[in-house]
């Protein structure tokens, strides 16, 4: 079942990537570039993949974690790299590890740091990770009662996984009360709203830092800046990300030092003390204020589109680094002395209702890394299948040059009702 081809499987490396977005296309692209550079054979598989990953390897249409595990066993996969949070939160890593399969990602217990904001905030509090003051609630009435005596604005969060959309900034009591009722009673974010976290509002600018963890040491990536809102000037609805630049020009060496001392190191100590050590990714979502650097949230997987922006800057061989992490060995991460600017092309109407099935044209004319996020193959055509469709990544010796390259290339790509922000990277 699901067996591809086991002939001479020892003669080349086989990697399986779980996921279907721009992040997974970028991870596959990085593996492919590294293997090409060292002139070694690589076979890539993606579950389920998309039109971009189909150009790198084989897309496989299976859905259950058991069948993914069977596929990895039957096809002698050397490494499985898990992209999305959903599979991590239900224990794909535990399932693979029981079969002694090489897999990169947190086990189910550690994945709670993303799957439950309440769990994460309690962990931060316990281990002295610098974060906003907060309180968790499992029912709406106590939460609303608590809100009566708070300072505003205030932040109301659905505790569970809400695809990056379960956070509401409320300007007054009435807004906050409505947010609690929407999340907990009307289930705006489904079961993610069974518990809410209410926390103080922090004023400042955000930064994102990806990192690899080997169970003993956290090794950070270069910093990044995400652009979350649909509209230019950071206006309108929140999205999964309209663009990213790296490194973040506002995030100084002093900020990095504070992050390491007050967030990264206490996180590492807490993970080890709680027995939550693993080989995988920790993504730190940060807020930088006049009072210092605060942790907003953990993600326990590669960010999207931060992955698409930072991986083209990574000088290390990704397969080598990931294997060292899995074995608990030491490694350093090195990044090019360059800037990256990722601009996201989306379907008109996103993040609300949008239509799919439009042909994507002009990809063959692009001269910079380009990753497909939401498009599938229909015959020999690539057609839109999601809200975020294409990630175009400009690389340059300055941020201005990286922006220029990204925007110059994005004009070569067309699909009906396309939209993208023109101000990604303007800080």
From TrEMBL:
ATP-grasp domain: residues covered: 121-327
Entry keyword annotation includes Nucleotide-binding: yes
Pathway given in the UniProt record: Purine metabolism; IMP biosynthesis via de novo pathway; N(1)-(5-phospho-D-ribosyl)glycinamide from 5-phospho-alpha-D-ribose 1-diphosphate: step 2/2
E.C. number: 6.3.4.13
Keywords: ATP-binding, Ligase, Nucleotide-binding, Purine biosynthesis
Biological process, per Gene Ontology: 'de novo' IMP biosynthetic process; purine nucleobase biosynthetic process
Annotated organism of origin: Chishuiella changwenlii
Reactions this protein catalyses: 5-phospho-beta-D-ribosylamine + glycine + ATP = N(1)-(5-phospho-beta-D-ribosyl)glycinamide + ADP + phosphate + H(+)
Protein name: Phosphoribosylamine--glycine ligase
Pfam families documented for this protein: GARS_A, GARS_C, GARS_N
GO molecular function, one term: ATP binding
InterPro entries: ATP-grasp, ATP_grasp_subdomain_1, PreATP-grasp_dom_sf, PRibGlycinamid_synth_ATP-grasp, PRibGlycinamide_synth, PRibGlycinamide_synth_C-dom, PRibGlycinamide_synth_C_sf, PRibGlycinamide_synth_N
Protein family according to the UniProt entry: Belongs to the GARS family.
Stored Gene3D superfamilies: 3.40.50.20, ATP-grasp fold, A domain, ATP-grasp fold, B domain, Phosphoribosylglycinamide synthetase, C-terminal domain
Top-level taxon of the source organism: Bacteria
PANTHER family according to UniProt: PHOSPHORIBOSYLAMINE--GLYCINE LIGASE (PTHR43472), PHOSPHORIBOSYLAMINE--GLYCINE LIGASE, CHLOROPLASTIC (PTHR43472:SF1)
Taxonomic path: Bacteria, Pseudomonadati, Bacteroidota, Flavobacteriia, Flavobacteriales
Keyword Ribonucleoprotein carried by entry: no
Annotated gene: purD
């Amino acid at each position: 079942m699901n067996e591809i081809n086991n002939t001479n499987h020892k003669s080349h490396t086989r990697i399986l990537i779980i996921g279907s977005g721009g992040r997974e296309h970028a991870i596959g692209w990085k593996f492919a570039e590294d293997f090409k550079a060292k002139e070694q054979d690589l076979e890539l598989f993606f579950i389920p993949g998309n039109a971009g990953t189909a150009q790198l390897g084989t897309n496989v249409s299976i859905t259950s974690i058991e069948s993914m595990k069977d596929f990895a066993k039957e096809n002698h996969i050397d490494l499985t790299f898990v992209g999305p949070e959903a599979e991590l939160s239900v224990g794909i890593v535990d399932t693979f590890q029981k079969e002694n399969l090489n897999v990169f990602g947190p086990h189910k217990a550690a994945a709670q740091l993303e799957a439950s904001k309440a769990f994460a905030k309690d962990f931060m509090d316990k281990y002295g990770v610098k974060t906003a003051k907060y309180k968790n609630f499992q029912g709406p009435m106590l939460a609303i009662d608590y809100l009566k005596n708070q300072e505003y604005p205030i932040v109301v969060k659905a505790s569970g996984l809400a695809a990056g959309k379960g956070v509401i900034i409320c300007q007054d009591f009435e807004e906050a009360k409505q947010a609690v009722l929407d999340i907990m009673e009307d289930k705006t974010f489904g079961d993610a709203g069974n518990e809410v976290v209410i926390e103080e509002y922090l004023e400042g600018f955000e930064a994102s830092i990806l990192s690899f963890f080997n169970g003993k040491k956290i090794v950070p990536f270069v910093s990044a800046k995400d652009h979350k809102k649909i509209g230019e000037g950071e206006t309108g609805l929140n999205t999964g990300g309209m663009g990213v630049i790296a490194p973040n020009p506002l995030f100084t060496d002093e900020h990095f030092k504070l992050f390491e001392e007050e967030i990264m190191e206490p996180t590492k100590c807490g993970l080890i003390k709680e027995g939550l050590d693993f080989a995988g990714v920790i993504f730190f979502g940060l807020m930088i204020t006049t009072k210092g650097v605060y942790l907003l949230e953990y993600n326990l997987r590669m960010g999207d589109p931060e992955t698409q922006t930072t991986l083209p800057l990574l000088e290390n061989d990704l397969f080598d680094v990931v294997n060292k992490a899995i074995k608990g060995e030491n490694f350093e991460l090195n990044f090019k002395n360059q800037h990256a600017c990722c601009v996201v092309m989306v379907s008109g109407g996103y993040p609300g209702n949008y239509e799919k099935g439009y042909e994507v044209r002009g990809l063959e004319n692009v001269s910079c890394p380009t990753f497909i996020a939401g498009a599938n193959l229909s015959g020999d055509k690539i057609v839109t299948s999601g809200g975020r469709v294409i990630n175009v990544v400009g690389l340059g010796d300055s941020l201005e040059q990286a922006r220029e390259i990204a925007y110059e290339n994005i004009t070569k790509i067309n699909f009906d009702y396309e939209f993208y922000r023109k101000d990604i990277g303007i800080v």
